[in-house]
Amino acid sequence: MGKLRSIYICQACGRQERKWKGKCPECGEFNTFVEEIIQERFIEKNLGKSNQHAQRFSKIETYQEDRLQTEIEEFDRVLGGGIVKGSLILIGGSPGIGKSTLLLQVAGKLSDLGACILYVAGEESEKQIKMRGERLKLFPENLFLLTETNLESIIEEAYKISPDYIIVDSIQTIFSAKLDSFPGSVSQVREAAVELMMYAKQNEVTIFLIGHVTKEGMIAGPKALEHIVDTVIYFEGDRHHNHRIIRAVKNRFGPTGEIGVFEMTESGLLEVKNPSEIFLQERLSESPGSVVTVCMEGTRPMLVEIQALVTETKLGMSRRMTQGFDYNRATLLLAILEKRLAYAIYREDVFINVAGGLQIDEPSADLAVIIAVVSSFRNAIVPSDTVIFGEVGLAGEIRSVSQAETRVREAQKLGFKRVILPNHNRKGLERLIGTRTIGVRTLEEAISAIF
Ligand code: TYD
Ligand code: MG
Question: Which pTM does this prediction carry?
Fold first, then answer.
């Protein structure tokens, strides 16, 4: 048994301090430090006991990871091509977004493929889960449900059943009797994750941890676990949309940035094979402030609608609001518009929205955002058969972006007649059947080509 020590831990980001602080120096949140008792047993256990030796690089043997496809393609893609045996995967998202639904469906598939799954339910009863399963039309033969929140009992049960997969729903409800702090605190959540990680690696069992993320990020959560687990997947957007987007933000066994798109239906999450269609579904074709752009999500091109609303400021300071697009980037783009083209944006409130709840963090959407703002400002329509993409530099120049051809082909596939793109990117794309490409060098050129 190690020595007990009391420390203060920020419940938002997991930073540790010896004394209580009002504001966290790391994440800047206020009032998030909570006293927790920890045991210095890790330090003790590991002191001077290592039997690892340095190995020559050339002598290290590599191997192909053992991957299993769940046959839910959108899920497999986000994982980097299937589930890696023995990995620890965190699935985060706001309450009600569909974490339990997704993993129950995954469990159903895995069971059909002959694997044995242990579903640890800390929030719902067996009956509730069974009812959800019936609604999803799942009849998994090899799925075991365990309603338990005590970490030691869970691991004991796991040794008895020896499943191939474990699903922990949710990590915030699990607590270890070894620690004094309350369930859901950073110490408890971490302890549970570390113990489960060891179990996963020793027994080659894949473990899925479900974690809640609140808007404020207040409850100790997934953020504090990101560096412990192998893979982190987050649900994006909110539950008011019909479709759900999952994205890998960390993956030790594959690329990040890939997204999976689902639609929440009466009978669970359905895969969306062609997201562009979904994102453009509800677009009003002839409305000022609406622009279609194409961004790359991992390896997939995706058409999305950018909307801007520019209205005269009524009270003092003008307001800027963005949804799905970086706020600072938007302010920068407005400044470019103001300086380079002398638009009096400072007198206007500007709202920018990416339709469909997608989060875009690619500079290739810059030009579309600016054009959407100009379109709303001038109350002029951007023709609905036009797709626009390109990065905008501080001098108002249009810079080239990666994978232009893939983007243009996606626009062509969905029947768009005109693509406005960086001039540099146009090379080789001059002659496309049914779609005209227009290369632009500056913002002025882009605006005169469009309006
Ligand atoms: P859930 O998976 O329980 O969310 P989480 O575990 O992330 O908190 O999903 C909750 C929502 O999904 C709930 O509002 C009901 C809805 N839902 C459907 O629309 N169809 C379904 O088949 C299921 C199972 C849930
Ligand atoms: Mg749930």
Answer: 0.82
CA distance 442 to 446: 6
Pocket test for ligand 1, best of 123, 168, 243, 264 (most atoms within 8 A of CB): 264
Tokens 């994205």 found at: 247
Give the CATH number of domain 277-450.
3.30.230.10
d(CA 336, CA 437): 25
CA-CA distances (angstroms) from residue 237 to 76, 98, 429? 20, 12, 34
| Cβ neighbours around 130 below 10 Å, total | 14
- Mean predicted confidence (pLDDT) in 64-86: 90
CA distance 387 to 368: 8
Q: Is 269 in the pocket of ligand 1 (CB under 6 A)?
A: no
**Atom 10 in ligand 1: residue holding the nearest Cα:** 96
Structural domain spans, the chain: 4-44, 67-273, 277-450
Does pLDDT of 451 surpass 80?
Answer: yes
- The Å distance, Cα 178 to ligand 1 centre, comes to 33
Does the domain formed by 67-273 have CATH 3.20.20.100?
Answer: no
Q: Look at residue 421 in the predicted model and tell me its pLDDT.
A: 96
Residue 267, ligand 1, Cβ within 6 A: yes
Q: Which residue has the higher pLDDT, 298 or 404?
A: 404
- Say what the pLDDT of residue 65 is: 75
Residue 6's φ and ψ, nearest 5 degrees, are -105, 130
> For residue 210, what pLDDT is reported?
95
Strand partners, 207: 88, 166
Residues flanking ion ligand 2, Cβ below 5 Å: 100
Tell whether the model's pLDDT for residue 410 goes beyond 70.
yes
Please give the Cα distance from 305 to 316 (Å, whole number): 30
Let me know if the fold of 67-273 is the same as that of 277-450. Answer: no
Question: Do 103 and 208 meet the contact criterion of CB atoms below 8 Å apart?
Answer: yes
